[in-house]
Design brief:
Structural class of chain B: alpha/beta
Strand order of the largest sheet of chain B: 5-4-3-6-7
Largest sheet of chain B: 5 strands, mixed
CATH topology of the largest domain in chain A: Helicase, Ruva Protein, domain 3
Order of helices and strands of chain A: HHHHHH
Strand content of chain B: 15-25%
Low-confidence stretches of chain A: none
CATH superfamily of chain B: Glutaredoxin
Order of helices and strands of chain B: HEEEHEHEHEEH
Structural class of chain A: mainly alpha
CATH superfamily of the largest domain in chain A: Cytochrome C biogenesis protein
CATH architecture of chain B: 3-Layer(aba) Sandwich
Radius of gyration of chain A: 32 Å
Number of strands of chain A: 0
CATH class of chain B: Alpha Beta
Distance between the termini of chain B: 64 Å
Shape of chain B: elongated
Helix content of chain B: 25-40%
Oligomer: heterodimer
Radius of gyration of chain B: 20 Å
Number of domains of chain B: 1
Strand content of chain A: under 5%
Largest interface: A-B, 14 and 19 residues
Largest sheet of chain A: none
Number of helices of chain A: 6
Amino acid sequence: MKHLSIIVLLILSGIACAGVEYREFANPEQQQAYENLTSELRCLVCQNQTIADSNAELAADLRRQVYEMLQQGKSKQDIAQFMTDRYGDFVLYNPPFKLKTGLLWIGPAAFLLIGLIAVFLFARRKKTAAKVEISAEKRQKIRSLLDEGDRS
Amino acid sequence: MLKYILPLILFIVMAVFLALGLNLHPGEIPSPLIDKPVPAFSAPKLQAPEEKLSQTDLKGKVWLFNVWASWCASCRSEHPILNQLAQQKAAIIVGLNYKDEPEAAKGWLAQLGNPYDVSIMDQDGRIGIDWGVYGVPETFVVDKQGVIRYKHTGPVTPEDVQQTFLPLIAKLQAEN
C-alpha cells in the first residue's frame, strides 16, 4: 500500500513539473518557423542552450515574443533582426559572416589546414629518414659490435 | 633546432590563448544599443500605477536606468551603492522593476530605502526585451538627447561609481 502511494506520488510529480507551453499555429509552416527560430536563438542566461531548450524565464519570454511576432505575420528575418537589434549577433547560433565573427567561421578550417600540413611534413620527413644508406664499412662495424656484445 | 623551438612556440601560443580566455567575461554581452536612442516605453509607475512614465518625459535630462527586482539577490548587494549615488543627486535614477510583484517591490523599497526618482513596472518583461535585458541588475546611462551611452551588466560596485559612472555623468551633464 505504501509502495503504491509512493508510485502514485511520483507519477503526479511528473505532471506537476511538465510545464509544457501550448502554442496553436495557423498552419504547419508557421509551426516549422517557430521551431526553427527557437532552436537558432541563444538563451542569454544559460548561454549554451537555445531558447527552445532553456527553462530560464528570459527564454520563455523570448519564445513568447517569437510566437507573437509569427502570429502578426512577421518573417523569420524580421524576428532574427528584432533579436539582434536588442541582444546583438550573440543571440544567433548561426551568426552572419563579419570581421568580428571571421575567426569563428574560418578558425576550424584554418586549424584543419594547419594540421594537414603538419601531418604531411612529418610523413615526408619520416620517409627521407628511412632512406638513409649505410655504407659497407659501417655495416661491418655494426656487425662486429653486435658480435662483441653477444660474446660477453 | 626547430625540433626544440616548435614545442616552445606551441606552448606559448596555447598559454596566450588560455590566458586570454581566463580574462574574458562571457557573461557580459556587448549591447548593440550603445549610442542608439532609448527604446520607446510607456509604463505605469510602481508607486502610482495610474500614472505612466515614458522616455519623452526624461528628455533634456541625464538619467540612469537601473533594472531591478525584489527576487534578485545581487540587486540587494547593489542597493546600498545606489542609495549613496542617489544622495549625490548627480543624475535622475529611473528604476525598471523587472518581472516583479508590485507589493514585494514596494516592501523592498520601504525596507532598504528608495534610491529611485521613479520606478516603472515591467511585469511581463517586455520593456526588458526592448532594452536587451538578460540579467538583473543592469544599469544604463542615458544622455540629454535620450541616447544610451553606457551599459553596465551586474551589480554596480563603489569602484564602478567612482571610476565610470560619476565621470561619465559629469561629462554628459556638461553636454547640451
